[in-house]
Amino acid sequence: MNGDQAMRAHSATLPGPVFDDPAWVTPPPLARSTVAIVTSAALYAAGDEAFGAADAGYRLIERDRRDLVLGHWSPNFDRAGVAVDLNVVYPIDRLEELAAAGTIGAVAPRHVSFAGNQPDDVSTIRLDSGPAAAAALRADGVDVVILTPV
């Protein structure tokens, strides 16, 4: 069994969270929505704190940052696509194009990055850093997020 198969087999045994009363909102039409990116590629700006093992925190990424570092350190993650085009995990150029075309209302001033390599119980993200990141995005007027899981 190769590394990818082993990770898939292990992931299949992990329980998923159950939400008794999941939140639901209806955003404004996309043409009037402010859109942000939430990635699990462990991106951070050069000079900022890198992600460590089991780091359940997040980093806010300024809209115009081009000095981003890919901090995802799993040996099961192929970095080739990101090396060629950062938009693979952080599609900021595509959002800018959608905003220029009027498809979306605006690109958020900040975006969020988490590390995808998390402990088995993602409770810290679900109960602490996730809501804190969401509050930061709401404070920026974000209506919709695009998730780019890694």
Q: Termini separation (Å)? A: 21 Å
Number of helices: 4
* Mean pLDDT across every amino acid position: 88
- Tell me the radius of gyration: 16 Å
Protein structure class = alpha/beta
| Secondary-structure element order, N to C | HEEEEHHEEHE
Query: How many β-strand stretches?
Result: 7
Largest sheet: 5 strands, mixed
User: Per the principal axes of the C-alpha atoms, what is the gross shape?
Assistant: globular
Unreliable residue stretches? none
**How much helix, percentage-wise, in residues?**
25-40%
Please indicate the percent range of residues in DSSP E strands (runs of 2 or more): 15-25%
How many structural units, i.e. domains? 1
Short description:
The chain has 150 residues and is α/β, with parallel strands linked by helices. The protein has helices at 3-12, 80-84, 92-100, 123-139, and strands at residues 34-39, 43-45, 58-62, 68-70, 106-107, 110-114, 144-148. It has one domain (28-148).
